[in-house]
Amino acid sequence: MRTKAPISGALLFALAIVMSCRSSETSDRGSVVIYTSVDAVFARPVAERFEQDTGIRVQLVPDTEETKSTGLLNRLIAEKKRPQADVFWSGDPVRAAILKLQGVSAPYKSPVAESLPVRFSDPEGHWTGFSARARVLIYNRDLVPEAQKPKSVMDLLDPRFRDQACIANPLFGTTSMHAAALFAVLGEEKAKAFFEGFAGNGGRILSSNGEVRRRVANGEFALGITDTDDANVARIEGKPVGMVFPDAGGMGTLVIPNCAVLIKGGPNPELGRRFIDYLLRPETEETLARSAAAQMPLRSGLSVPEGMVSIQDFNPMKVNYIKLAQILERLSRGFLKDWVNQNL
Amino acid sequence: MISCLLLERPGRWRIFGVAGLLSIAMLPSMPLLWRAATSFDAGTFVIGEAFSSALFNSAVVAFTVMFIALVVGLPIGVLAALYHVPGKKPVLVLVALPLLVPSFLWAIGWSALAARWGRTASEVLSGFAGCIIVFSATGIPLVLLTAFIVTIGLSASQVEAARLAGGERVVFRQALRHAAQPALLAASLAGVLTLSDPGPGLIFGLRSAASDILTSFSALYDFGQAGQQCVILAGVVLLVATPLAYFAAPWLATQVMPRQLLAEIPVRHRGSSFAAIVALLILVAFGILLPVTGISLPVIEADAEFERSLSEVGRTWANTLIYALGAGAMAALLGFLLAFFVGRTTRLRTVCLGICIALFSLPPALPALGLVQLAGEAEAWMDPLLRSRLTVCLALGLRFFPVAAVLGLQAWAATSSSWNWAGAIHGVPLTKYLRKVVLPFVSPTLALAVFLVGLLATADVSTVLLLHPPGQESFPLAIFTVMANAPESLAASLCLLYVAAAGGLLILVARFLNIQESL
To answer: In CATH, what number is assigned to the domain containing residue A111?
Structure first.
């Protein structure tokens, strides 16, 4: 009796080994491996449609929130010499730019991308931008009357929102990109003053944009900065939140396009290119616009849900995404790291 | 024919064996440690004021969790083992649940609950308090189960002698003393485990060494700096672990005596049984029900999305089981091999314990990214080893190998040397002796090692994220990849399903190991 458990365990382990080795076929002629930092709930339906339309199998590897574990970008960098992925579908251009800087990506200018605005893509074709999110102010309508709703990110420093404002950790994700954009647009001094003023006004750093959405929606904070997809999810859930595209008359709202990146030396480059072509089609932009992420198409004139704010309806911040990646690297080692250390 | 006396023979072969096994455990971390060494620059060395203060915060959390886990887990574990407690098995299964769930899930639960209670509650939970509560939820079960297992290992004659000498109070005191050292070791492992986990620190706003290392990986993509920080962390842990290992090593050498083979049977004692069940229920309420309530609030307020969640379970359950079992088997194999090489050598045992505890403090990303890099440099024919589900099992097994090593050292040292001598005198070949005598004796501990490592490995999302072959996710990973921006009701449904599946898995494993017999 006493030896039964280990014997059964050994048998199960042997089975596991057999199954493990079988699973080593990571990609064959008919499959394409996609790493993505776009939320799985939004990326998977697109991948499944691609499978149905083309018969090519997609092996999707989605990311987790970077503030809770070491993410996929590290895996791509570590796999650089013999990658497993064919394509990286990035949720923002800074990650894509980092891959270019690290020598992980390969140039590919898709013919489908000709109708997309060039300012959201890498001029050398290492990444191509499509459907976008934006960095918006989210506020709790029960706590902030319509007449007093914020209009600028600078309102986070307003004394009427003392101890009432929150942002996600600016070392990670789209918040880090937004921080770099503020430094690029406002200049070093004003951007530093913004962060110091935010902390001085009792602003809080939370773990993620999702957390900003939850805690503003619950009324724990009056306002915060998050992404449009987060704000839209709160709206769908019926939470008492409002959304503002900030700084319409000033520096503008930061736009965060999705980016398709072909991985250098990937196992199936041809299928990877086909997937990128599929992603960049107007139909994919329409699908993402209709999803809960409510991603704004970069092309004009596409069919989108009624009432959806399009990129032509607000003032997009004018930034060079490649420069943002360089600014971000400097800030993450210097000012931002120190600021988070002091205020977390 | 090799004699059984080999097991008692000292020699350099033991040192070489131990060094070889510890090298295997270190192997996945070597690529990044090498990069840390080659990128070392005394001018910009990372142990500045910022990392020192993060390290200090981590140490405070680790020691507090150690203390709480010991003070709460030890007496409850002893009480539960000594006395008849109604519904003991399901309650113990529930108590073990936090071991199977990544800590940041509990942190999210507490955070959500505090948000409902108001700003003051959130303020109270922010920083040290939240982190300590969440990590204690894992630490207490680890100590409690260790104390429980050690106490049920007491012989009936030992317990009876204590009872005759001074009644229940003496029985309890002696059992506490008996279980104290292993419980301290378990508490240390729980404390060390907090050092490599950045989730709760980031959620509750506490700077920790783990969050600094995560920043180096995920914000700076600087593997060299992350590697240097890991080395510093492991060095500090080694300093603290060495005296602990020195004191714990002799306990691990307690040999079993023939007269001790009749196990102690839990007795009915009104006061003690009542105290045990009340304590266990408080633990379940505080450690599980409250955070689960926090997680499930969105499901109460909106429609649950269990159908979609169930499809995730269907897609991932097999991988989850393979990763858990594979990791458990791998860790147990290495742990017991280490025990074989250490034998009864106290000095080797001390060294191994210290190194195992230090290894345990390394963040999972270090070996995982090291393996990814190794695989990238290797030839394609190595993929079945370096890029498959077996790789995930290997990495998880090596990460949690210290747990199996501690159990293995204890089980091996408990074998009686007189058995070896008897075997040698009667000319029993070593292989037959190992198969017929040693394996049946250590098999319960072996199974326990597989079980414990399997539980801990299931909760490790980082390793699986970085190493799983495309399309071969585990269920915890599937949950955490949809949690970020999914509607709250879907995220909550998935989390609830995960907690339920974890509970179900625990019950299955408990049945598999036939734990009922021990209760």
So the answer is: 3.40.190.10
The helix (H) or strand (E) run that includes residue A298 is none
Q: Which residues form the domain of A66?
A: 28-132+255-311
Give yes or no for B434 touching A (CB within 8 A): no
Report the alpha-carbon distance of residue A334 to residue A199 in Å, rounded: 17
Q: How far is B53 from chain A (nearest CA, A)?
A: 9
Q: pLDDT digit string (tens) for B154-195? A: 888 888 888 888 888 888 999 999 889 889 888 988 898 888
User: In this prediction, what percent of chain B has a pLDDT beyond 90?
Assistant: 16
Show the tokens assigned to B61.
């959390």
Full residue range of the structural domain in which residue B79 is found? 4-518
Q: Which of A3, A169, A332 sits opposite B440 (nearest CB)?
A: A3
d(CA B348, CA B341) in angstroms, rounded, equals 9
Neighbours of A306 (CB within 10 A): 4
Query: What is the C-alpha to C-alpha distance for residues B514 and B519, in angstroms, rounded to an integer?
Result: 10
Note whether B387 contacts A337, CB cutoff 8 Å.
no
Put simply, the answer to whether B485 touches A84 (Cβ < 8 Å) is: no
Same domain (yes/no): A214, A333: yes
Chain B contact set for A230 (CB, 8 A): 485
pLDDT in tens, B60-117: 999 999 999 999 999 999 999 888 888 888 888 888 888 878 887 888 888 888 877 8
- Structure tokens, B170: 């003496």
What does the pLDDT average to over A85-89? 96
- Note whether A34 and A147 are same-domain residues: no
Question: What's the CATH code of the domain at B305?
Answer: 1.10.3720.10
- Confidence category of residue A42, pLDDT binned at 50, 70, 90: confident
Whether the complex's predicted ipTM surpasses the cut of 0.95: no
Partner-chain contact B50 A13, CB within 8 Å:
no
Same domain, A200 and A226: yes
The reply to whether residue B322 touches residue A21, judged by beta carbons under 8 angstroms, is: no
Residues A167 and A222 in one domain: yes
Q: Which residue of A has its CA nearest to B437?
A: A3
Sign of the alpha-carbon torsion through A303, A304, A306, A308: negative
The pLDDT of residue A3? 47
- Domain count for chain A: 2
